[in-house]
Amino acid sequence: MYQRIIKILLAFIFIIPLYGFAATKDPLIFSILITRHGDRAPFAQIKNHAYQWGTDLEELTPLGMHQAYLVGQKLKKFYMKDHTLLQTHYQSNSIYAISSDTNRTIMTAESLLQGLYPPGTGPSVNEKPALAKKVQVIPIRTLSQNSTLLMPPYPQYLKLLQTDVYPTAKWQEIQKSYQQDFKTWHNILGNPVNNLQDVMTIGDVLNVAKAHQKPLPKGLTQNQAQTIIRLRDKALAMQFQSQKFSYIIAHKLLNQINENIQKVKTHDQRYKLIYYSGHDLTLLAIMGALNLPLKQAPDYASFIQFPDFDTFECESLIL
What we know:
The chain is an alpha/beta fold and 319 residues long.
């Protein structure tokens, strides 16, 4: 069943840009955007090296805001200059923005939309800016904490990892080949490093430290840090190599995207752009479910955009 639904979705992705507009120069009439949040503080700390991030754990950093803003600027050119899907000044109901219920995804959406409609493009009242610097406010809908649209049902996700990912030959082979490194990394960092799951935890911290140009923990070499980060990215992506596994995680979002596209076909879609602000798992699951699994975890502020003429796009913005 899930393969059939995915094929239907892909058919709509390929058809919509040409639907009723084959003779025009600008066939783009609707787009869906899915982002991963920008740079954030990690979920944990290195026991033997207490980093200071300037923000609480898990929260979006100023760098993350800037990354999302730059994505918005890039999309401004795509949506307004290249394809005129959106107007240069915000129009009511042109964008439907939805975020998961975390500060980092909400703030990412706010930052990206500021890139699309920067200060100076907002409305005026009696020839004076309605808000200081003519800021344009764009509504963002926030999903409930219990929603699994942009984040997987976590208990089910963890259970699937235990049954469908961790026991696989490839996962076990990689894990076995790094056993001696696990002991070395544990002795240096102080964190438990017994398996790839533990590597993902410390790799997340080191990846953020690298982005912020912070020094490595004492005793950890640059090569070791790079190995941990690469292994972390690879392990996260490995979870979504199975199309069936990915579909279980992403099916609600895929079904909603399919409904959005159906409305375009029947001329019932009131929005030009529907924007979902989510997480790395959101992008990994979507790509895996479409049988185009990523080989490594998506960078901060990565995004999937479709339709994009006869294909869709998965990009990351590297600063």
